[in-house]
């Protein structure tokens, strides 16, 4: 872990996690668009899936073969990674994060609860972990159903996952309860500004 005294302009890490439908992406996008002074930039992850559409290596992702990915895992090159299913990996390289921090960027992670815990453990007080929480499981079900994009079976799967993820909320530095989007945005902005 590199100390902040090395580069006074060094960035910090902002780790976001939330159950699907909590409004996390909406909040992150608002912060990035409306508050450029925060200098928030997503970390560019690696994946072993092939590029889709116009995706370019080093822009949306770094595209690796499953073998290249496993080699990097064995060399302990990832801050966090996950094998979503056989040979389909996603992960964040330590070198990529370091490069962005040295440029003074505040690196944004949008990860599941396990990824969040791993990053926080690796970076300690250089990282702020934020859990965006729905006001209730009932409200979450209403939001997911209201999207009209998923079958009921898929919604129930997401609800089950959300209930599991909520058990991790207390392990985060900050919990933002999104029962009012504007209030949640302002609260998140306040927490991040104070941290940076």
DSSP strand tally: 9
Class from secondary-structure proportions: alpha/beta
Order of adjacent strands in the largest pleated sheet: 2-7-1-8-9
Total helical segments:
7
**Average pLDDT over all residues:** 92
Which range does the strand content fall in? 15-25%
Shape: globular
CA gyration radius, whole angstroms: 17 Å
Question: Can you tell me about this structure?
Answer:
The protein has seven helices and nine strands. The chain is of the alpha/beta class and 196 residues long. Helix 5 (137-147) runs antiparallel to helix 6. The radius of gyration is 17 Å and the shape is globular. The two termini are 18 Å apart. The model is unreliable at 1-5 (pLDDT under 50).
Put the structure in a nutshell.
This protein has helices spanning 24-34, 66-74, 94-102, 113-123, 137-147, 152-166, 181-195; strands at 13-17, 40-42, 45-47, 61-63, 78-85, 88-93, 106-110, 127-133, 174-177.
């Amino acid at each position: 872990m590199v100390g902040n005294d090395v580069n006074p302009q060094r960035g910090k890490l902002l780790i976001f996690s939330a159950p699907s439908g909590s409004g996390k992406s909406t909040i992150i996008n608002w912060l990035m668009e409306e508050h450029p002074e925060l200098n928030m930039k997503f970390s560019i992850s690696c994946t072993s899936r092939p590029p889709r559409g116009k995706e370019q290596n080093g822009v949306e992702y770094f595209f690796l073969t499953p073998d290249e990915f496993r080699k990097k895992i064995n060399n302990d090159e990832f801050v966090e990674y996950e094998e979503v299913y056989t040979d389909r990996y996603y992960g964040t390289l330590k070198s990529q994060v370091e490069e962005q921090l040295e440029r003074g960027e505040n690196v944004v992670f949008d990860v599941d609860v396990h990824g969040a815990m791993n990053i926080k453990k690796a970076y300690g007080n250089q990282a702020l972990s934020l859990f965006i929480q729905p006001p209730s499981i009932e409200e979450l079900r209403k939001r997911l159903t209201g999207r009209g994009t998923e079958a009921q079976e898929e919604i129930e799967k997401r609800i089950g996952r959300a209930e599991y993820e909520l058990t991790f909320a207390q392990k985060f530095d900050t919990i933002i309860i999104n029962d009012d989007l504007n209030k949640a945005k302002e609260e998140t902005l306040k927490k991040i500004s104070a941290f940076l």
